[in-house]
Amino acid sequence: MTTKKLLTAFLFLLFFCENTKAQTYEKKIDSLILTGFGNQNEPGGAFMVSKNGKTIYRKAFGKANLELDANMTPDHVFQIGSMTKQFTAVTILMLEQQGKLNVGDPISKYIKDYPSGDKITIHHLLTHTSGIKDFTKMKTLSTIAQKEMKPEMMVDFFKNEPVDFAPGEKFDYNNSGYVVLGYIIELVSGQTYEDFIKKNIFEKAGMSHSYYATDRQLIPKRAYGYHRKDHGFVNKTVISFSVPFSSGSLMSTVDDMLKWQQALNRNILLNTAETKKAFQKYKLNSGEEFTYGYGWHLKDINGTPDREHGGSIFGFKSMGVYIPSEDIYVIGFSNCDCHSPTEITRNIAKITLQSVKK
């Protein structure tokens, strides 16, 4: 056999092996997702996996709209819930980079009448160590859930509640802290939170299908949200998005979330020093380290460090996992809060990590 024929045979064999490997990987991911999103006549979800910034898996399952019998596609727009906190945290760091604030500042510097605001810092808010009352746990939340609330009104709603612990004493996931951050962003930047995110993040990162959530504005390719009841599915509970505000009111697509991850990787939004602050672990007053940076949980998958965060808001759930050492990003969205993508997304990341290490 000539050298040319040997080379051709080798390349064909290489292509065949790679193609077979890709098909095996795809089938593994499909079967994993179908364990939770297998009924194609129910609300569904969208999943995407990237490696080195390139999409290697991208599929949708189920229905985007039950009334219209519309199938889900990977292009559909979902509410991302608490994944919003990533954007709020990065916005704070952008303002610090511009010299407009410092994460070590007490919040009394910006909100003069905040109780014990001289002891609570922006850092405490970012890391869920402030001790302030989480408004989502307040029994009176239903009285404002459908009202249009200005950021100051939202802060006033919970600021006089007794604190749960002294600042820095413990880590306790807290939505109120991120609402206060959103209010500070508006005070410092002179822009609404929505405008700042749109102009300084969405537009810079090329996220043309991401929005501050609304039930009034027409959103192209919007996935509708659902709850499951004993008698079947119902449309999601209607709330005012001014209530979750900067703790959970953004919408996006799987493709736009990859652009977000790429913008962070390429320092399009933050310099290296500020980016590092988001992704490092911090310590409590006792010296004990906890596994949360600024807007991300810092965990690991089989010993390999990752950055992850989920979200849950009426009718929707979301989850994102990023493995820095391998540049693997996995994102999962669901348009029913009865289907959680959290464990599925983590397991996809686990399988993907195993496949690249073979």
Automatic annotation (TrEMBL):
Taxonomic superkingdom: Bacteria
Signal peptide extent: 1-22
Keywords tagged on the record: Hydrolase, Signal
Domain spans labelled Beta-lactamase-related: 37-338
InterPro entries associated with the record: AmpC-like, Beta-lactam-related, Beta-lactam/transpept-like
Any Pfam family matching the protein: Beta-lactamase
Annotated Gene3D superfamilies: DD-peptidase/beta-lactamase superfamily (3.40.710.10)
GO molecular function: hydrolase activity
PANTHER family noted in UniProt: BETA-LACTAMASE-RELATED DOMAIN-CONTAINING PROTEIN, D-ALANYL-D-ALANINE-CARBOXYPEPTIDASE/ENDOPEPTIDASE AMPH
Name used for this protein in its record: Class A beta-lactamase-related serine hydrolase
Provenance organism: Chryseobacterium carnipullorum
